[in-house]
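Raw record, unedited: Peptidase C15
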Amino acid sequence: MSRKILLTSFDTWLSHQSSNASDDLLIQLHKNALFSENLLFLRQLPVEIPRASERVIKAIDSLKPDLIICCGMAESRYHLALESNARGNQQRRFTSINLNQLINQLSYTSISHDAGQFVCEGLYYHVLSYLQNTSSQRQALFIHVPIITVTNIPKIRQDVQQILKLNEQK
């Protein structure tokens, strides 16, 4: 049975940004149309922790996805990064996804243990907390996306599609 996957992205937040790499990735996935019946998109979240978290949690409640993949831009990174955890309120929350097993299938992705102490980490923390506090069987993952270029987009797309395939059925 195919699992529903909610994918989120952020809007830009600095004047020099013409787009957000996380949203560029979702556009690419939507264009590609693979898994289209399973993918749900929540694009261009505000770059504010409370508003972004509220929108994602409302989407989780209404759409009931099996997997939530939040994406955010990391301008200083060169590869995709799967975030193992998020910090907030002097606590740390971890994804229930086995990242070591997942990473073995990927060629352009690493595991990160620092989600960045910005809106990305705030959103991830709130989503993980919500899922844990509601004893949900849903899983969540945060992917940091580097600036997308003509050179790296095939590698990024390939790894993200592999992530979606690995998590398509459970």
